[in-house]
Design goal:
120 residues, elongated
């Protein structure tokens, strides 16, 4: 989005996996079937199952929850799906800076992590 208009700004998902996850989150939030891994549109008419983790689903819904106060369910899940990856990357960079402090020293470890984060 820094360089110019992106596909996400126009409401376009990156791939089919992104669509599948957001549809599954919408089904979970509307129907409340937490342990149901089936997906009605997958491998029709037999209804195949997903094999993805719930931790990422919880993070996605936790990010979408405050947004649901102003936007509808579909848009809040869409925008939280866009924002979750940069947030996780920033949290990982902070955690990495904290982890290498004893090895490299406080200033040097933080400087190296910030240099590595610039390449992302």
């Amino acid at each position: 989005m820094v360089i110019g208009p992106s596909a996400s700004g126009r409401g376009i998902l990156a791939n089919g996996h992104s669509y599948d996850r957001l549809v599954r989150m919408e089904l979970w939030l509307t129907l409340g079937h937490w342990f149901d891994k089936s997906f009605p549109g997958l491998n029709a008419p037999f209804m195949d199952t997903f094999h993805r983790t719930r931790l990422f689903d919880v993070l996605l819904v936790a990010l979408a929850a405050p947004v649901m106060l102003t936007l509808d369910l579909n848009r809040s899940l869409f925008w939280s799906g866009i924002l979750i990856s940069p947030i996780i990357h920033i949290a990982l960079a902070i955690r990495l800076a904290w982890a290498v402090r004893p090895l490299l020293g406080v200033a040097e470890g933080t400087r190296r992590v910030l240099e590595a984060a610039k390449t992302l």
